[in-house]
Pseudouridine synthase (Pyrus ussuriensis x Pyrus communis), 383 residues
Amino acid sequence: MKRTWEDKAMEIVWQSPAIRPQPQDYIFRDGRRHVRPYYFEFICHVKNRWAGKTIVDLFTHEFKGRPYDYYVSAVKSGRIQVDGEMVPVSHIVKTSQKISHFVHRHEPPVMTWDISILQEKPDVVVVCKPASVPVHPCGQYRKNTVVGILEAEHGLAPLFPIHRLDRLVSGLLILARSASKADYFRQQIEGGMVQKQYIARVAGEFPEQEQVVDANVNHDARECRSTTEISHSGDDIPIKGKTACTKFTRLSTNGIHSLVLCEPVTGRTHQIRVHLQHLGYPIANDALYLSKHVNGRSTEGMGADRAAANSSPSPPSGFRENLSTEPVDSNEDFSIDPMCTNCPNLVPKGYDVYEEALWLHCVRYSAPGWTYECPYPDWASLS
């Protein structure tokens, strides 16, 4: 690959998914785990709808996290290349050409809560996932994930998550240690043989009798938000959402909040959260689904994941660019890149430091032949 960058005098070590996370990759500060910024190559191939645009216009329109002038400089310096070659800013892209974008990558921080290993067997690792940490590399996260941290701190690799928990959700997470074991678990899940249990702390005094919500869930990926849909007999309006069913049982209440056992029969994005909202008893700190008018019920404890609603739209598939961030303080523990749009800050732009956890916790997964359980979190006590 040709590189004639303005900062070519800098010592640059490029990282790829083949380079494993290491303990020294992390910086701990103010209760948060940060990742030292690192150089990374993002690769994608030109889609049909991109063809005919100039390389600069393509990036400006499709990846809005950086300004036009940055992309001009990146093309001129070789940080953006086409088929491994430098091109002029006027270059017109063609379908299937390979585009590389070499970036100084800043990952969002996560909380420093431990990932507790509940069981470690030759073919399975079971952990208690803390809130704020994504399960596996996705979006802006690569090293600051459960998979990355377990590899860096415990040498556990490879790991294959057999189910996922949203970043803000805590609790039981099962990871297979081989592809064959992962397939075994997934076949059971897809065959409807696995029972899942979560607990949630909701606003209001939840009814004593079991509540069953059978309402389709329609997820809007751009808004990072789900809605419920119910078909009525005689309606000609088509239902867009996927079928979804959740059973809810009240465990305890103090009149202000209730602790509820949630048993999802299906597994849709934000299913438990949106079904609780549908009932009128949203999770008590879920800013995304908490209405300001919840029939007079208390909404104290708000503050978990406004970022899900206010985050920048996801970039097109292919590149998984670092599109959001918010400046924090500068850091002397990493090298500043003169072209980086995040430096000198350690934290990427747009990160909301106040939204890190949701009162939703996975407590149990079971199927014929196995059961795994996770302890309750501190917020599960209503005393």
Notes: Residues 1-10, 293-331 have pLDDT under 50 and may be disordered. Residues 194 and 367 are 5 Å apart (CA to CA). The first strand starts at residue 14 and ends at 15.
